[in-house]
Specification:
The complex is a heterodimer. Chain A is mostly helical. Helices cover 69% and strands 1% of the residues of chain A. In chain A, strands 1-2 form a two-stranded antiparallel ribbon. By secondary structure, chain B is mainly α. Chain B starts with a helix and ends in a 10-residue tail after the last helix. At the A-B interface, α5, α9, α13 and α14 of A face α4, α8, α10 and α12 of B.
């Protein structure tokens, strides 16, 4: 019962946010229902969903991918190019994005999953890097290269366009996060989901039990990547354009950071990590410009002006003192998921010496 | 012909930098099982220390001497920084590899951001001895002199590391540790000293790559460490994790492929072909060229 009531209550509560006339001074720049705040909250929700898709791979199946950015960027760029450069309508563009979002991870996943552990991480990194280079190279002027590509708003329905309609985008982002949550919950509790966790725990034993791990791992890879692609599309609507930063390896690393902050191998935790990271990333920048920080001596002011410095430092402290992430608050100790993933990563061909 | 010579030597110069980064990465992974994402930060720290020393040592009139002294400062700072990272951040997480990797991820992000906060995101010009910018003509090709410095340095480091690993007691412990760490520990040898040592060596080599990248590009910038690090990862994996010789061979291949493809096919394609090369090598020989382990 609790498992249904709490998520529904949270969902309803979040859905009512644009209707609130509430002002939280320090926490947000304007009233909660102002477009600026809703935009930030919507971003937080998108990344809550995307972080959870990464956790499906990393936390639940034990696959450390350094290429998740590729699938998020697929959503951002394919939809953007189809609408802005090819002047397709919204429907066909979304259909194309969905097709690519399924086919790409199916093919690349099938290739990368031939290897495991660190080698898998490196192959996924390489594919994502290829995508990043392709976007940067700007073939036929399609992707806009370094500058990015603004979205042609005429292709969007009216309810998505304009500052006043930010609340609709907020609800869209909330819907996305909710769908990812439900799908992820359902997936990890379904019987393939149980096999994923078994693979994370001990892949050899899964094989001995007579199951081939490969199709299950590929399933997890495709599902997680497809949901990330969907997140990329929502992000595109929200930001109104594509920037090459979403294709980089650093972007994948931030997803990893989000998941670990929240709690590896937990659904709630990963989402919370996504929200917290995104919020801090944006608000710390504003904090740096505020009078309180500007008045500090430069020894303190300079480091505080870089959100990534603060986030990186916080992350290190968290890994030291709370390796289970926020989800392990109060429990303490090292989470089971991390231990298992570590073993999965260290699985090396027989006869390997390094312990 | 002269284009080919120029491309080859430039490719080798680039490969030299990849090797300097990759050698440390490879040793650290081989011995400790830690994929060090902070390695780009070591490079950045070394490069900025050199640049900073140069701006402060204006008392030394001659540019070559000032550059040399500054480079030594940069190397020392890089090595000490790396050793401190091992002592303070990595050692307490002994035997928790995932956490160690995560810490290096955080450190990489934080260090790059800090450098950017202090000195800005823009590139800073490094004063390099003028002869490094001059050219020497070989087989009709005018080659910038700094390429030879990079290649020579990498060869010296390769020979030096190999000699250290083969001729000294610590080298023996490191080689044995890469082979089978549990056994070395069981024989009563404190492997942890070797951990700090490989970090210091890795930091030194990365700082050296940072100094040389300052000569190669003429500037230092905060993001360079990260962008070179990705190619160094590729070199390490192609060469086989834990193998110095493999890294050297892979660095040469990667540097050359990148230069040739960028020139003969189209610019940007060089990076893509390197990535493709990694994919092929991993799928055909998952353990890398040297077959050590992956």
């Amino acid at each position: 019962m609790r498992r249904v009531v709490i998520p529904v209550a949270v969902l309803v509560g979040l859905a009512l946010v644009p209707k609130l006339s509430l002002d939280l001074p320090y926490v947000f720049n304007g009233p909660v229902s102002s477009p600026g705040t809703l935009q930030l909250l919507a971003l937080c929700l998108v990344f809550a969903g995307v972080a959870l898709t990464y956790d499906l791979l990393f936390g639940f199946t034990g696959l450390l991918s350094f290429g998740h950015a590729l699938y998020f960027a697929t959503g951002v760029y394919v939809a953007d190019v189809a609408m802005t450069k090819w002047h397709w309508d919204l429907g066909p563009s979304l259909a194309l994005t969905a097709g690519v979002g399924l086919l790409l991870p199916l093919v690349l996943g099938a290739v990368s999953l031939r290897v495991a552990g660190i080698a898998f991480a490196m192959v996924t990194l390489a594919f994502a890097q290829a995508g990043s280079i392709l976007v940067g190279k700007n073939p036929d002027g399609l992707t806009g290269g370094e500058e990015g590509l603004g979205l042609d708003f005429h292709k969007l329905p009216e309810w998505m366009v304009g500052v006043l309609n930010t609340k609709n985008l907020y609800w869209l982002a909330l819907g996305y996060a909710a769908v990812v949550f439900v799908v992820a919950r359902w997936a990890v509790e379904s019987s393939p989901g149980r096999v994923w966790q078994a693979i994370r725990e001990n892949e050899l034993r899964v094989e001995v039990l007579g199951l081939r791990p490969f199709p299950f791992k590929l399933g997890a890879f495709v599902l997680s990547s497809f949901l990330a692609t969907a997140g990329g599309v929502i992000y595109l609507f929200l930001i109104g354009g594509a920037t090459p930063q979403v294709t980089t390896a650093s972007f994948t690393l931030t997803l990893l950071v989000m998941v670990v902050i929240g709690g590896t191998g937990t659904t709630w935790g990963a989402m919370l990590g996504g929200v917290l990271y995104t919020y801090l990333d944006h608000r710390l920048g504003a904090l740096a410009d505020s009078g309180t920080v500007q008045d500090l001596p430069s020894v303190l002011k300079t480091p505080l002006s870089e959100p990534l410095f603060i986030l990186g430092t916080l992350f290190i402290l968290l890994v030291f003192f709370l390796p289970g992430g926020l989800a392990a608050l109060g429990k303490g100790g090292r989470p089971r998921a991390l231990r298992r993933i570590e073993r999965a990563l260290r699985q090396k061909p027989a006869g390997e010496g390094v312990a | 012909m002269d284009t080919l010579v120029l491309l080859t030597i430039t490719g080798l110069g680039l490969g030299a930098m990849y090797f300097l980064i990759a050698s440390g990465l490879s040793l650290i992974y081989g011995l400790m099982g830690v994929l060090n994402f902070a390695h780009g930060a070591f490079l950045t720290v070394g490069a900025y220390a050199t640049w900073y020393a140069e701006t402060k040592l204006t008392g030394i009139g001659s540019v070559p001497l000032r550059f040399l002294v500054s480079a030594l400062v940069g190397l020392a700072v890089g090595a000490v920084f790396a050793a401190l990272v091992e002592l303070v951040l990595i050692r307490p997480l002994y035997n928790r590899h995932i956490e160690q990797v995560l810490v290096t991820v955080g450190l990489g992000l934080a260090t790059t951001a800090l450098v950017q906060a202090i000195w800005g995101a823009d590139a800073r010009t490094v004063a390099v001895p003028s002869w490094a910018g001059d050219t020497t003509t070989i087989l009709g090709a005018a080659i910038p002199n700094d390429r030879f410095v990079e290649i020579a340095t990498a060869i010296v480091v390769l020979v030096g590391i190999q000699a250290f690993l083969r001729k000294t007691r610590y080298g023996l412990i490191i080689r044995a540790g890469v082979e089978n760490r549990a056994m070395v520990t069981a024989l009563g040898i404190d492997v942890r000293k070797a951990f700090t040592l490989v970090f210091a060596i890795g930091g030194l080599a990365a700082a050296l790559a940072g100094v040389l990248s300052g000569v190669y590009f003429g500037t230092v910038e905060p993001a360079r460490g990260t962008s070179l690090l990705i190619f160094a990862f590729i070199v390490v994996v192609i060469g086989g994790l834990g193998s110095i010789g493999g890294s050297a061979a892979a660095a040469v291949v990667v540097g050359l492929v990148q230069q040739y493809a960028n020139y003969y096919a189209s610019s940007g394609l060089g990076d893509l072909s390197v990535v493709l090369l990694l994919g092929i090598v991993l799928l055909v020989r998952p353990r890398g060229l040297s077959g050590a382990f992956a």
